[in-house]
Amino acid sequence: CISPFARVSGCDVQVPLVQGGTCTYANFDYAASAPALASVTDRISELLPFYASVHRGAGYASRISTTSYEDSRESVSRFVGADEDQVVVFTRNTTDSINLLAGAVPGDVVVLDIEHHANLLPWKNTRVVEAADSVSETVWRIAVELERAPAALLAITGASNVTGEVLPIAELADLAHACGARIFVDGAQLVPHRRVDLAELGVDYLAFSGHKLYAPFGAGVLVGRRDWLDEAEPYLAGGGAVREVALDHTEWACAPARHEAGSPNVLGVAAIAAACDTLASHDAEAAARHEELLCAQLVEGLRDIYGVEILRLWDDSTDCVGIVTFGIEGFEPGEIAAYLSAEHGIGVRDGRFCAHPLLARVGLPGGAVRASLGLGSSSADVDRLLAALRQLVADGPSWSYAKADGAWSP
Ligand code: PMP
């Protein structure tokens, strides 16, 4: 795919249409999982012949795999601006990273009510703050809660997976630190869209997933301050996480090995590192500006369609990544998504996006439709989506989603 920023796979995939024939797939589902970058595919192909278990092998393939695995840690660390006090732990995904950190936090965790379930459910001793109608009021409410009683951690999303809205992370980091707490950022949606520099922002812990960062499924990252991670119970008990084992005593290793028991996902980790290296070499601001223009085109077009309501928590001046969630009066979200796929070859997502409390609070318990952008998105794709939605509103679907029993299979 010709994107001004990177070669992304899957942009020229042909998909079947319900009326017969095929068309080029238009992907508006980057927020769920992003297609692999060409550099990621190349890195995996290079490494595949040397597929071997890491660390304790003296064979050539094992040494290549070990070097790749540990170099990948360096790539990730550089990409997020981690300092020497911060350690990169490889996990399966963001959810895994948060569950790992949840076992290491020595106290209460303050969260907002708009979070993805992954940043709500794993925490113990949670104190939930209700987001307000403006960003500044929301920040103020968080400050009040942090001052009210000691908390160990403020756990906050970098960018909402429902609205794309971005929180002022540096300000929140200062606030948390002033109250004696640390800050964790759920970067699942932010990292693929913005350069996140931990040192610059003052962030203590960050998690993200390979599959949303143009790498395949199965590998994720937790990066953060070493002390809690060194003191925590090992996330997984087993080989690789220990220094010494006797039948009546175990001496655990420090982080990251402490939390990475078992044979690691060498290829998945190399893929994340390749994505980080590629994204680090790009002009992130230019990519963000490009995405902002596409997003504005999408929002403007949607606002011109009768019955469309765009879901935003805060006003239009709020910084946003390329995620636009909406509903259309008279249509079920599932019906809209199925229609776009079946009749126009357009992939969006519908539902409640693993953020049930947020959807309930904005009065959309039945869910909404989410269109999300990424490096392979184009203005032509946005036009295609808008034209399809205009046609839907004008004519209704030319086949019945309900009759298809809620499903359409190619
Ligand atoms: N946090 C946010 C904001 C997300 O969007 C997601 C994925 N939808 C997650 C966490 C969980 O990511 P994963 O499924 O890769 O663990």
Automatic annotation (TrEMBL):
<dbReference type="InterPro" id="IPR000192">
    <property type="entry name" value="Aminotrans_V_dom"/>
</dbReference>
<protein>
    <submittedName>
        <fullName>Aminotransferase class V-fold PLP-dependent enzyme</fullName>
    </submittedName>
</protein>
<keyword id="KW-0032">Aminotransferase</keyword>
<dbReference type="InterPro" id="IPR015422">
    <property type="entry name" value="PyrdxlP-dep_Trfase_small"/>
</dbReference>
<dbReference type="InterPro" id="IPR015424">
    <property type="entry name" value="PyrdxlP-dep_Trfase"/>
</dbReference>
<feature type="domain" description="Aminotransferase class V">
    <location>
        <begin position="27"/>
        <end position="385"/>
    </location>
</feature>
<dbReference type="Pfam" id="PF00266">
    <property type="entry name" value="Aminotran_5"/>
</dbReference>
<dbReference type="InterPro" id="IPR020578">
    <property type="entry name" value="Aminotrans_V_PyrdxlP_BS"/>
</dbReference>
<keyword id="KW-0808">Transferase</keyword>
<keyword id="KW-0663">Pyridoxal phosphate</keyword>
<dbReference type="GO" id="GO:0008483">
    <property type="term" value="F:transaminase activity"/>
</dbReference>
<comment type="similarity">
    <text>Belongs to the class-V pyridoxal-phosphate-dependent aminotransferase family. Csd subfamily.</text>
</comment>
<dbReference type="InterPro" id="IPR015421">
    <property type="entry name" value="PyrdxlP-dep_Trfase_major"/>
</dbReference>
